[in-house]
Design a protein that fits this description.
Elements: E1 4-11, H1 15-26, E2 31-34, H2 42-46, E3 53-56, E4 64-65, H3 73-78, H4 81-90, E5 95-97, E6 102-105, H5 110-122, E7 126-128, E8 133-139, E9 142-147, E10 150-159, H6 174-181, E11 186-192, E12 196-197, H7 200-207, E13 213-220, E14 227-235, E15 239-241, H8 243-249, E16 258-261, H9 268-278, H10 283-287, H11 293-302, H12 318-329, E17 331-333, E18 337-338, E19 346-351, E20 369-371, E21 379-380, H13 385-398
Parallel strand pairs: 1-2, 1-10, 2-7, 10-20
Antiparallel strand pairs: 3-6, 4-21, 5-6, 8-9, 9-10, 11-19, 12-15, 12-18, 13-14, 13-16, 14-15, 16-17
The chain binds dihydroflavine-adenine dinucleotide.
Cofactor: FAD
InterPro entries: BaiN-like, BaiN-like_dom_sf, FAD/NAD-bd_sf, RsdA/BaiN/AoA(So)-like_dom, RsdA/BaiN/AoA(So)_Rossmann
Protein name: NAD(P)/FAD-dependent oxidoreductase
Length: about 400
């Protein structure tokens, strides 16, 4: 097979990789995209329920987790949600806003894939797909890649293979391995934006409530690494899911408890004490005005307070009612783990950004090596933030190659 030379080779033709390749190609560089999958950009295709939540109008650095929280500021402000929206509109893609600034395609996420592909074609980006990279090594100032399609020489190399979520779609830790090979530090990767699971015995009272959803305030952690989200929570056979849980999972560390406010914005103590003095109702009847009856029964069972459900409030001491209200506002449970990469939307952790230039995404001690997208230790909230990071870091890199 023939040997080929490029100004820049981008490994991984996903969100960040196509963005970087198009930007660099438009500047006149000879760029090659190398992708190992059979189908292009599977994660964009399945994202946002098939409609791709491609950005969020409220993006700031505050919606990203990282050991180096200020790192993402520069790229995010140099390429904003408005910039991406301009691109989407130039391609005639119709879009709409859902809640909380989340922007989706009207028709299909395929529109975003077509748009990125056409930007790459206009920029004369070359493709090798499917193509497996067997090794990467230094070659003078540049790099040489041994691949299933022969040797490729790159003056500059971009690692854009994303995170490890959904390995069944071909996700790998390739970028982390190559970064490590060049002496870069890795922040321990873990599944994030992922359902949380519980010990089967502990979860027994709730397992049969699978499918029940409610709004809740969920928090975990302490100090700077603490998170709080007020969103919908969903009970599943094995544990908890829904936006509130996916969001908090990115902040959760093994062994830590979650605190769940089952009645956010309400004053249950006041309500229950008032009900005690004005009526003859049973506790479970009053609680069932807020939540499905089965959930009330399951929750009381999990608190070892099953018998209380049938008690009239008037029979309960005020102190007991106060304790009960407090635990409904701060239900404390400890997940045994996450549902893993198979069910996660993203990976948290990744290449430590302290060794990366925040304006260009180039590794400071490895001239010519760039890392972008989810492979870096930058993890966005649910709601379009991860794609915006892919577009912004891809652009920062593509403009600097
Ligand atoms: P991305 O994963 O897009 O691309 C990496 C590319 O590298 C892939 O094409 C992969 O095949 C390729 N690759 C991997 N290993 C390789 C190797 N060894 N050799 C060559 N190529 C290799 N985000 C958001 O903002 N809004 C949303 O609506 C959603 N929805 C969503 C749903 C689901 C189910 C998932 C799993 C994820 C999301 N996300 C999301 C997250 C979003 O998809 C993700 O953060 C970005 O795609 C990351 O962009 P990257 O370019 O870094 O990786």
């Amino acid at each position: 097979m023939s040997s080929s030379r490029y100004d820049a080779v981008v490994i991984g033709a996903g969100a960040a990789g196509m963005m970087a390749a198009a930007m660099a190609g438009q500047r006149g560089l000879r760029v090659l995209l190398v992708e190992h999958a059979q189908r292009l950009a599977e994660k964009i295709r399945i994202s946002g329920g098939g409609r791709c939540n491609f950005t969020n109008t409220g993006v700031t650095h505050a919606q990203y987790l990282s050991q180096n929280p200020d790192f993402c500021r520069s790229a995010l402000s140099a390429y904003t949600p408005r910039d991406f929206l301009d691109l989407v509109e130039r391609h005639g893609i119709r879009w709409h806003e859902k809640h909380r600034g989340q922007l989706f395609c009207d028709e299909s996420s395929e529109d975003i894939i077509r748009m990125l592909r056409s930007e790459c074609e206009d920029a004369r980006v070359a493709w090798r797909m499917p193509c497996t990279v067997q090794s990467v090594s230094r070659n003078g100032d540049g790099f040489v890649l041994q691949t299933s399609q022969g040797a490729i020489h790159a003056a500059q190399l971009v690692l854009a293979t994303g995170g490890m979520a959904i390995p069944q779609l071909g996700a790998t830790d390739f970028s982390l391995k190559i970064a490590r090979q060049f002496g870069l530090k890795i922040i321990e990767p873990r599944p994030a934006l992922v359902p949380l699971v519980f010990d089967a015995q502990q979860w027994k009272p709730f397992a049969e409530l699978s499918g029940v959803a409610l709004e809740a305030g969920v928090s975990t952690g302490k100090g700077r690494s603490a998170g709080y989200f007020l969103e919908d929570l969903l009970l599943t056979h094995r544990g908890l899911s829904g936006p509130a849980i996916l969001q908090i999972s990115s902040y959760w560390n093994p062994g830590e408890p979650l605190s769940i406010d089952l009645a956010p914005g309400k004053d249950l103590e006041e309500e229950l004490l008032q009900a005690k003095h004005t009526g003859r109702q049973q506790l479970s009847t009053i609680l069932a005005a807020h939540w499905p009856r089965r959930l009330v029964d399951g929750w009381l069972r999990s608190q070892g307070a099953e018998a209380l459900g049938g008690s009239r409030l008037a029979e309960l001491p005020d102190a007991r009612i106060r304790r009960l209200a407090a635990s409904l506002h701060a239900w404390t449970i400890v997940p045994t783990g996450t549902a893993g990469y198979k069910k996660a939307e993203v990976m948290r952790g990744g290449v430590d950004t302290r060794a990366i230039d925040q304006r260009t995404m180039q590794a400071r001690n490895v001239p010519g090596l760039y890392i972008i997208g989810e492979a870096l230790d930058i993890t966005g909230w649910l709601g379009g933030y991860n794609f915006q990071w892919a577009w912004a870091s891809g652009t920062a890199c593509g403009r600097s190659l």
